[in-house]
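## retry 2 of 3
previous attempt timed out at serialization; input unchanged, resubmitting
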Amino acid sequence: MARIRFAILVVALLCAGPADGIPREKEKWIEVRTANFVLYSDAKERHVKEIGLDLERLRRSLILLFEKMEVRSPVPIHIFVFKNEKSLKRYVVSKDPDHPTAGIYMQSTEGNYVGINGDAGWSPMRIMYHEYFHYFVHNNLDFNLPVWFDEGLAEYYEAFQVDKNKVKIGLPVEGHIYFLRTHPLIPLYQLFRINHSSSAYNEGERRGVFYAQSWALMHMILSNEELRSRLDEFVRYLEEEKTVVKAISRAFAMDEVELMARLEEYVGRNSFSFTTYTFDQIEIDETVQARRMEYTEVLHRLGDFLAHKNGEESEAREHYETLRALVPEHAGAEAGLGFVCLQEEMYEEAAEFFRRSIAIEGSDYRTHYLLGKSLLDNFREKSAGSARLDSVPPDVLEARESFQRCMDLNPGFPYAYSGFGLSYMYGETETVPGIQALLYAHDLMPHEKSVAYNLLVLLLERGDREGAEELQATYFIPLNDPEYNRIVKEAILLDDIDRAEHLLEKDRREEALALIDHVARETSDHLRKERLTRWSNSLRSNMEARQNVDRYNRAIELANSGDREGAVKLLGRVIKDADDPNLVESARKVRNDIRRSMRGR
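## retry succeeded, writing output
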């Protein structure tokens, strides 16, 4: 499915759309801007400003954790602070009336969206803190963290609190402590190998132990001054060694047995420390700007929020159509309707809406990106399974131009480079610009495995087998992701098939046959294995047939040159090995003639 990626975390289950329809014109909404965040809210201005500054303090705290990290924010975060449960329920509705929804966090390629109940205290903020940690770290580390490390740190920073003029980081999570004291711990050698597809990450009680133990391990490291001081070294060694066990040994000077013993002791203690910073220790830019939003802006922003929720397309469309009725030439309404169509996989209709939006006002980089995406998605859906192209299709060229315009408007937006690079995989012989774009996107988004995969495929397309295998060894294998390792291996095996075809064109049949047999042994695609086995058998049969014809012709040459004994011997091999009855019959006749001539000497 070609949908934009969504990773949604909610406190309670969600069901369909706003209970009260579109907002009323008399409702007061404000926009609050801090140095790095934009918030939209119908709550009191002072409260919204406090939430924005708390996020700035969290961001600064994360920078203090990874002091040498260059901070990058590839896509904007849109934060909606609803003033109370009733206001939130119009847009995020819980299926369980006894457990009201506290918040939602949604990710997409052109922006992240947060909706929280601003009157619910700490609970919705924890959702936002947890997911913001992932967003921050994934975009600012140049490699993929092990899942236990990633989730353990997110759980640690989820317990972030602002209290008067202080921030508290790493407060003990009572639920995790209780869970670990009532359930057996996961052996560290297993914990270190858990990935996003592991049952321990996805299944009920085992998932609870995984999160709790990951939190406890990170809490222990960050609460110990000696271990904490070596965290930067650990991250660096982790990148160099590619194995957690070796990184732990080098950074913390202990093995996993000792680390497990220390963790068990830590979980059983009576008290847990946490870190406190005063505001002057984590200085931030406290500039905050607030303004009243026009009704048309409210419709636009809330429509955008709904459009990014799965299953809310009709409600989003209602907001955009209301906006369109008020302002017929509204670029945001056209782009919003295009995004709704894109979510519904109506790619051609989406492209038309995006083109109309750009014609009205063409300075929004996201609209150019989404136009390119809709064109490329439409082409890929229609051409799935088709033969290779001899030239670049018009839709792909238009998509590439849209991605280029997006890059011109916002040079730091990584998904435009990703789309631009992807466009070079279709009918293009010059792949260097695509590779360069994907390298840049990969540098900005090391967590995006699809970008790294497309880069690997384009490197293979260019003939840079060494570069592709290096990417496989340094990026994909350390991920320990079985599915991605499988498809990467298959991509490299497909390159082997291409190499075999080129060898056959040069009549280097034995080398080609060896490659085909290698791919047939290694591939996990059963249909491909069967096809290659048939191809190998056919090629081997043809080679044997050709070899017997060569023997026959050589035998004639030997006979004509006087070496009749050598000719008889070769013809005997042809008679024994050849499957072609006509060739066997001809070889027999010639051998008999030669033998008669030998007897008559």
